[in-house]
Amino acid sequence: MNAPLSLDAGPPHAATVVARIQESPTIFTLQLRLDDAAAQAAYRFAPGQFNMLYLVGVGEVAISIMSDPEDRNGVGHTIRAVGRVTQGLAALQPGDRVGLRGPFGRGWPLQEMGGRDVVLVLGGLGCAPVVSVIHYILRRRERFGRLVIIQGVKHAEDLIWREQYDRWSKLPDTQVLVAADQGAALWPWHVGRVTALFDLASFNPERAAAMMCGPEGMMRVAAEQLLARGLPESSLYLSMERNMQCAVGRCGHCQLGGSFVCRDGPVFSWGQVKALLAHRGY
Amino acid sequence: MFSQPDRAGFMPFAQLPSLVSRLSALGYRCLGPTRENGAIVMRELESPADLPRGLQAEQAPGHYRLTSDPHNRYFAWSNGPQAIKPLSFAPQESLWRVERDEAGSLRFAAVLPAADKQAIIGVRACDLAALALQDAHFLRAGRRDPHYARRREQLFLVAVQCAEPASTCFCASTGDGPTPTAGYDLALAELADGFVAVAGSDKGDAVLKTLSLAPATSRQIEAARQQGAAAAAAQTRRLPGRNLRDALMSRLEHPRWDEVAARCLACGNCTAVCPTCFCHAEIDEPALNGQASRHERIWDSCFGESHGHLHGFNVRPDIRSRYRQWLTHKLATWHDQFGRSGCVGCGRCIAWCPVGIDLTEETAALIEGGQP
Amino acid sequence: MKGPTAIPVKPRVAVHKFSSCDGCQLALLNLGEDLLELAERVELVHFAEAGPIDPMAEVDVAFVEGSVSTPEDLERIRHIREHSRMLIAIGACATSGGIQALRNNADGAEWVTRIYSHPEAIASLAHSTPISSHVKVDFELWGCPVSGPQMLAVVNALLLGAAPRDNADKVCTECKRHGYPCVMVSRGIACMGPVTRAGCGALCPGLGRDCYGCYGPAENANTDALAAQFGRQGLEPRAVVRRFQSINSQAPAFLAAADKARMACDE
C-alpha cells in the first residue's frame, strides 16, 4: 500500500462514486471519494491538474479535476462520454467503484494571479480545466481583480451550465461573453465566432492574466487577440490535451516537442508552446 | 576501454567457454548471439561452446543477410535486429492487477517481474549508449520505473568492440562507438587469437579476476585500439551533426516530409528496433469472470494510429506527421529531454525498414538542402 | 463504435453463419474451457455449431460470420439486424466479402457453369459482399479466421459495458514484440505485414514465412510503397496483384492496390 500522499505512484487506489450528475446528453460529473478515509483526507490538488480514472477491465483515462481544492468530501470530474472508458464510466451509478491515481501535472499558477484581472477563455464542450478556475475564483473573489469569461461553442445547445453563465454575468466586476457559431431559439448571446467578442472584453492588460482551454486553433486566435490588446505573453496560460496513458512522463504518447504534457503540463505558458501550436500534427 | 591498459587482460579463444561457465556458476542465465531465421539474435546459450563463429552481417537499407567471415571471428557480425532493449524494457508485461472482492470493493496490487540474473555476451557500444538513455528515461530521479529497474539491475553486460561495422552503422558520427567506453561490466576486443578483456565495474572485475588472465601486452592493446579506429574510419554513413535540434525544428514544414511519407509504410519497425525508443501503450486484460483484470504495458510506436489518439480526433492522422514526430523526437527534442540526441548510430532503423528508408539520408536532405 | 448502452447482466447472444467456412465459429469453439466460463455469463440462444438453434430470436448481441452471397442471405441479414441490439461482424468474409469475393472481379456466372453440373441449382449473387454493405455493423473483427483471444476480448468488453478495443495497427507491431526478425529484410520475401491489420500475433512471420494479409488492411496502409518494394524485390506486377487479391480482395485499400498493379501489368 502506498503512503496516502503518493497516490500518483503505482497502481490506482479504490474509489467510490458518491454522486453522479448528468450535465448534458453526453456530459456527466462523477463525484468520487477514495475508499481509504485517510487517503481521502490527505488528498490535495491544484486547479488544472488531472487524475487518471480506471474502469475495471476496460482501462484508464485522464480527467481534469473539477471540484474545489478545499472540498474534502470528494473529488469531482466532469467527463464527456466519447471513448471506450468514458462511455463505460457514463454508466456508473452512486456506489459503483473505480480506480483513481493522481493528481498529475502542473495546474494553473493561481498564486501569481492574486490582485490581477483574470481573463478566462473557454472553447467547446465542458472545458473543465477552466470552469474549475471560475469556481475557484468566485469562492475567493476578493483575491482577484476583474473577471472576464469568454466562452465559444459550435452549437448553442453545446453550452452546458447555461444558468451559471446567466448568474455569473450578473455578478459585480464580472463580464461574461458567450458566442455560438450556430445559434438557436432564445439564445441570448452572440451568434458567430467567439473571436469577435475579444474587443468587448474589459480588463487592464497591464495587470491581467489569461487562462485558456479548448481547440488549439481557437486558442491560437484567442492568444493573438489578447496579445494584441497588450497582454504580456508571460501572463497567458493554456491547458493542453494529448493522449495520456501513464500520466508520469513515461509512455511517450503526450509528447509535445520536448515536453511531456502529462508531467510538464497540462498547463503551459503561451511562450512554451506557441512555436509548436503553429504546426498541424505536432 | 583502453584507458587503463595495465589492468587489461588477454583471454585466448580457448578460454571463452570458461567465461560463460563462470557467469553460469554465478547464477546468471547467459545470453549470447545465436543464428535464428537468418539473423543474429540474443538467445540463451545452452553450452559455453554455443557462440557462433565465422559470421558477418551484410547490411544495407532494407537488407540483412548473414555471410561468412573469412577470418572466422566470433563477433564479426556487427549487430542483429534487436539490441538488448527487450531485456530491460519488456515488449509486454503486467504493471498491476485488480480484483473485485465479495463486498464489491476493488483491491489493486502491483505486479513486479521475477527478473532472473542475466549475462549478455556480445553487447555493442551503440547498445550500451542506448541503454544509458533508457536508464535516463526509466530510472529518472523521483520517478523510477520499478519494472524496468528490477530487470535492469539483474543484467551483467559483456561488451564487444566492433571490428567489422555494417554499411548501415554510423556510431562514430554520433560518438557512441565502435569501441565501448562505459556502461559495461566486461568489455572484449577480439584479435586473431583471443580477446583483450577489461572490467568496467566491480562485478566485472570480480569475474575477470577468477579467470586468471595473463596481462594484455602493449602490442595487443595497440592492435585493439587500432582496430577500433579502423572500424570507425570504415563507416560510410554519418549524421550531419550531433545536435540537429534547431536545424530540424526550423524545418517542420519542409517538403521532404511529404516525400518520405510517400515511401514510409508507417509499420513502426524502426521504432521497435530502435534501442532508445521507449513509447508503450497501457491496456487491460480482463479476466473471464468479469471480477478481475491485469493492467499491462506493451511496446507502442508513434507510427501507430492510437499513439496520437485523442477523443474524437487524431493529433497525427497521417504518415507525414508520424514520421516527422519520430525523426524530430529522436534527433531534435531528445536534446530537450535528455541533453543529447536519441540516436546512437546503430543503423537498425535503416537496415530493418522494409522499404529501406535511411535516416541519415532523410536528415541530410532536410538539413543540407537549406531552409525552404 | 458507440458504447453499448446498458447491456443486461446476462445478455442474449446469437452466432449466425452466412457464406463462410465456419472457421471463425471454430475459433470460438476452440476456446474450450474459456468458452464454458464465458457461457456462464451470457445466454447463448443461437449457435448452431455448439448446439442451440433459434435463428429468429431477439438478441442483445449477434455475431455474424460470413458474407452476403445469396439472395437468401440478403433477407436474413436484415432480419437479424432488426432483431439484434448490437451486430458484430467476425472474420474476413463478414468484413470484406472473403475469399469468395474474388468472383466480384470475374464473371461469376461463367464460373458456376464451368464448375457445377447443374448450374441452375445454384442461387448466387453476382458479388460477395461484407455485412456492412447491407446493414449497420457495430463492430468489425477482422481475420481469416479470427483468433479465439480476439473473440474473448470482444465479449469481455461488452460484458464490462465498454466498446471492444479496436487495433488497426500493422502486423509488424506484433511481429516485433515477439522478437521475430523481419522476413522482408532478412530473407527478401514479399510480406504483407506492413499493410495488414494486427490481431493474429504475427503467426506467419513467426514461422519464417510471409504474412498474406488475411486480417485485411491496417489503418494508413501505404500499399503504394509496399507494392513498389515488392517490385524492387523482383515480384512481377502480376504477382503483386495476387498479393492484394486474396482473402480480403474487396477491402478498399487492397482492391485499389491490386487495380494499380494490374494497370502496371497492362503497360
Notes on the protein architecture:
The complex is a heterotrimer of chains A (282), B (372) and C (267). In chain A, β8, α4 (162-169) and β9 (174-182) form a beta-alpha-beta unit. Chain A has two domains: 4-104, Translation factors (Elongation Factor Tu (Ef-tu), domain 3, Beta Barrel), CATH 2.40.30.10; 110-277, Nucleotide-binding domain of ferredoxin-NADP reductase (FNR) module (Rossmann fold, 3-Layer(aba) Sandwich). Chain A starts with 12 loop residues before the first strand and ends in a 5-residue tail after the last helix. With 282 residues, chain A is an alpha/beta fold. In chain A, 21% of the residues lie in helices and 31% in strands. Chain B is an alpha+beta fold and 372 residues long. Chain B folds into two domains: 5-233, no CATH class; 245-368, no CATH class. Chain B has an eight-stranded mixed beta sheet with strand order 3-2-8-9-10-11-1-12, with helices on both faces. In chain B, strands 7-6-14-13 form a four-stranded antiparallel beta sheet, with no helix packed on it. A two-stranded antiparallel sheet of chain B has the order 4-5. In chain B, α5 links the parallel β9 and β10. In chain C, 38% of the residues lie in helices and 10% in strands. Chain C has twelve helices and five strands. Chain C has helices spanning 23-29, 33-39, 71-82, 91-96, 108-115, 148-159, 171-178, 183-187, 203-206, 223-232, 237-244, 252-266, and strands at 12-17, 43-47, 59-65, 84-90, 139-141. In chain C, strands 2-1-3-4-5 form a five-stranded parallel beta sheet. In chain C, α3 links the parallel β3 and β4 (84-90). In chain C, α11 (237-244) packs antiparallel against α12. Chain C starts with 11 loop residues before the first strand and ends with a helix. Classes of the chains: A alpha/beta (282), B alpha+beta (372), C alpha/beta (267). The A-C interface holds A 55-59, 81, 84-85, 87-88, 90-91 and C 2-3, 5-6, 156-157, 160-163, 165.
